Amino acid sequence: MNYEQNTKKQGKVWLVGAGPSDQELLTVKGKRLLSEADVIVYDRLAGQGVLTYGAEHAEYIDVGKHSGNHRVRQSEINQILVREAMEGKKVVRLKGGDPFVFGRGAEEAEELKKAGIPFEIVPGVTSAVSVPAYQGIPVTHRDAASSLHIITAHKKEGHEPDEIPFRELAGVKGTLVFLMGVSTLPFLCANLIREGMDPQTPAAILERGTTARQRKITGTLETLEALAKETKIQTPAIIVVGEVCACRSLEWYDKRPLAGMKIMVTRPKEQSSRLAGMLREEGAEVLEAPAIRIVPEVENERVSQVLFHIQKYQWIVFTSPTGVEVFWSALRQHRVDVRSLSHLRIAVIGSGTARALEAHGMYADLMPEIYDGEHLGAALGEVLSDEHILIPRAKIGNPELIREIKKRSEAVIEDLPIYDTHYEAYGFINYQEEFEQGKTDYVMFTSASTVRGFAQAAKGLDFSKVQALCIGKQTKAAADHYGMQTFMAEQPTLEAMVALVKERKRTW
Fold first, then answer.
1. What was the pLDDT predicted at 3?
2. pLDDT tens digits for 411-455?
3. Tens digit of pLDDT for each residue in 275-312?
4. Which of 22, 86, 180, 372 is catalytic?
5. Tens digit of pLDDT for each residue in 75-93?
6. Is 65 an active-site residue?
7. What is the model's pLDDT at position 10?
8. 371: region left, alpha or beta (phi > 0 left; psi from -120 to 50 alpha)
9. Position 257 in a domain
10. Which domain holds residue 328?
11. Are residues 301 and 416 in the same domain?
């Protein structure tokens, strides 16, 4: 089978650098390609966060390479890339850091070229530069280092790394960055000193760089080995040698309010970015793990008839931003002119729903001070008599809203389901590792359905290990049901959720 005979069938492979663990350091092109890929071939160093950018239909193949554990041989990875591309698929090979900086990307590209598979290289942010930057270490500095040397210190099949030019490196006045060097640290330090480097040269070992758990151990070339043993440094970590390690005044990462915290956000993918952005702005590491997916259900006769007869309603009620967006989508799909809504009075639950409405040029007439269905129903009951009221919302809606309206008025209610929530699960997220090993500090829930979706995705997890930050009482009740440790925001808003995280941080 040759390339010329299968041009129409063959797909393409993109070797994409994922950067270090901070998913926001993924390039714009890399993010786009993930969202379009049919197959994503990844290993541990790529990080879980960037994998959530993958398309809903994408197949994920874990080749599991990390220090001391190569689950899949390099030759097998090469075969996977060729096989999947031969089937006409768009394949993203996601690699930690940069594909061509000790990532074996060149070997994979050579194999693809040999097989006649089209490919592209998408550079990534290398840990050799980004990890020191997150610890306040500039790899170059006009007064301290005018050159940068990146060296792999990885052992080959149990042997010490070879071909490291220690004599030349010991004499340079620049910065040395050793990747994959934790297990060979004694060998590295001893050889640099033996070849003439000053034992008092500043040096640092940087563990889990660009994550909430990052650590920096600083010393000298002479003391670094003992410090690494004393502090039990683990992989992944890089070693930096040079005068730049003394630039203590440039530390910035740990000075932010939520630095050192890792938080899982479970909102639907299309809604998570605002909350995740607010948390990252305050310094938290965020793992976006959507627990539910919104599925619009507006292409049916009932929705069509309600919209066609929209003039008979006096009030419309929106209970969430999702309800607003799906309703406007329904208007477009059924070609209903927005001017037909001009007679309606509008009630909403919460400032987020009000903002979503305002984005469409409309403003709420009624919003209770306490953002829940019970209080909105009570407020509506005070102003309604026998009007017709339309409530476009989720298929399974909170019964309190309608119960309170009926208790206080003779209103005719059209409870219109326009979307459903389906549980979402990402096979590449190891929930046991995140919570039972303490990698994630808190998980944020913005609805009871996100709690249930999380519980479904994390089957087998000891939920008593989960610290749940909940947006309201119904969400908290759902988390309590599973035995989680629960904390509730003062107001059911995203701003109050972030304030709750800060409050919890003060208890550390």
1. 43
2. 999 999 999 999 988 878 889 989 988 899 999 999 999 999 999
3. 999 999 999 999 999 999 999 999 999 999 999 999 99
4. 180
5. 999 999 999 999 999 999 9
6. yes
7. 84
8. beta
9. no
10. 294-423
11. yes
Using a CB cutoff of 8 Å and minimum separation of 24, what contacts does 383-388 make? 384/315, 384/408, 384/409, 384/410, 384/411, 385/409, 385/410, 385/411, 386/410, 386/411, 386/412, 387/313, 387/314, 387/315, 387/411, 387/412, 388/312, 388/313, 388/314, 388/315, 388/412, 388/414
89 catalytic? Reply is no
Same structural domain, 114 and 37? yes
> Of 22, 38, 43, 441, which residue is the catalytic one?
43
Considering 65, 90, 262, 505, which one is annotated as catalytic? 65
How many structural domains is the chain composed of? 4
* Residue 66 scores a pLDDT above 80: no
Residue 75 is part of a domain; what is its CATH number? 3.40.1010.10
153, amino acid identity: A
228, 251, 274 — which closes off a domain? 251
Read off φ and ψ for residue 504, nearest 5 degrees. Answer: -65, -35
Q: What is the SS3 assignment for 258?
A: coil
Query: Is 180 noted as a catalytic residue in this protein?
Result: yes
Average pLDDT (463-476) is 95
Q: Are 79 and 200 members of one domain?
A: no
Looking at the chain, how many residues does it have? Answer: 508
- For residue 366, give the CATH number of its domain: 3.40.50.10090
Say which residue the tokens 């309170």 belong to. Answer: 404
- Radius of gyration for the chain, computed over Cα atoms and rounded to the nearest angstrom: 28
Position 5 confidence tier, pLDDT thresholds 50, 70, 90: very low
* Final residue belonging to a domain, choices 76, 95, 125: 125
Per residue in 481-495, pLDDT tens?
Answer: 999 999 999 988 999
Q: Are residues 329 and 401 in the same domain?
A: yes
Do both 198 and 141 map to the same domain?
yes
pLDDT above 70: percentage of residues in the chain:
95
| Spatial separation of the C-alpha atoms in residues 455 and 432, rounded to whole Å | 12
- Same domain for 411 and 302? yes
